[in-house]
Design brief:
Blueprint lengths: L6 E6 L2 H17 L1 E6 L10 H6 L7 E2 L7 H19 L3 E5 L3 H12 L4 E4 L11 H12 L2 E4 L2 H9 L6 E3 L3 H7 L12 H6 L9 E4 L3 H4 L2 H12 L5 E4 L2 H9 L3 H5 L4 E4 L4 H9 L3 E4 L2 H10 L2 E4 L7 H5 L3 E3 L4 H9 L17 H13 L1
Helix pairs in contact: 1-7, 1-17, 3-4, 4-5
Amino acid sequence: MGRPRPKVVAIVGARPQFIKLAALLRRLDKAFDSRVAHTGQHYDQEMSADFFAEYKLRRPDVCLNVGPAPPNRQLGRMLDLLDRHFSRLKPQAVLVFGDTTTTMAGAVAAAVCNIPVAHVEAGLRSFDLRMAEEKNRVIADHLSTWLFCPTTEAVRDVKAESIRGGVFGVGDVMAETFRIPRRFPVSGFSSRATGAGLGTRPTDEYYFVTVHRAEAVDDPDNLATLVEMIIALDRPVVFPVHPRTMKNLKRHRLLARLVRHEGIQLLPPINHHQSLWLIANAHAVLTDSGGVQKEAYWAGVRCLTLRTVTEWRLLVAAGWNELVGFSRPKLLRALRSPFRPRRVTDPVFARTNASTAIIRRLRSDLR
C-alpha cells in the first residue's frame, strides 16, 4: 500500500468560484484526497445548487450554510465554522478562489490554523481599496503559500508588494471552463433552442447586461443612473437580474422603469451555459462582473464595464473593454466610437492549461 494522498480542501461560496472549481475539481479528485467546502455565501437555488448540476459536479462535502447577512457577519460565521472543520479534516492545503468574502475567510481561517493556502486567480489589482473585492484579494495573496496568477501583470503586481516566493503565472482557469459549453450543444453555444427559449433577438441585435456589485446596486444614486443608462441604449436589452439587484430595484422603486420599457427583457438568474450563449451572440456586453469581462473577450464581443476601475487592465489597454462607470454620456459616447481592439499579447493569459499547472505544482510540493 502506498502512502495516503494529501488532503486538500477547496473552499467555494459564490458563482464565480463554482466556475473556477469546475475546471479543477476532477483533477483535484484524481490527485488528492480532496474535499469541497461550500460556505453558502450564494444561497439561492439558481446561484448555487443549480450550478453544481449544470457542470455535473459532485455535491460539496461540507456545507456551512451561512446564508444571508452583512459581509462582516458572514465572515465571522465562516471563520468559526471553517476553524471547526479544519480541526476535524486536518488538510495539508486549502484552495481559495477569486476575491469574495469566502476567499478571505478561507485564507484567514487556514492561516490561523497554520495550513498552507493556494490562491487561484491571485495577484489581480484594481488599486481601489474602497472595493471589498480588492481587500479580499490582497489579504488572500499575503496569506498564501501558492499564488496562481492569471496574467503577467498579476505576477508583477504581487512581486511589487514584496511577495517573492510561491508566485506562478499559470493562466486563467476560467478559460478552460469557457470552452466546456461548446461540448454540450443541448444547452451551450450552438443551441438555437437556448436563445429562442430566452426570447432573444437574432445575433448582434441586443445588448447583454449584468450588474450585481455593491457599489452599483447598493447605492441608490448609482443604481438609478444605471437604470437610465440601460433605458438609453439603442438596441434591445437582455438583462438577467441578480437577486441582490432585483431586491434593490424593488426597494428603490426603480423596477417599474425597466418593466415598462418594451425593449428591455428582464430574466431571472440564468445558468452559465445560457449566459455564455447570450454573451457570444450579443452586440456588446455591459457588466460590472470581472468574469464576464473575460468571457466577452474570449467570445470576441465588445465589453463596456460599469465600473470606474477594473482588475483586468490588460483588456482595457487592448481596447476590448472600456470603463464607463456610472455615466450615461460616457456609455453612449463609447458605443458611438469605432470598436477596433488589438491582440492581447500576454503569454501567461494566453495559456490554456492553468488547471494542469496548478495540480502539478501542488502535487510536487505536497508529495
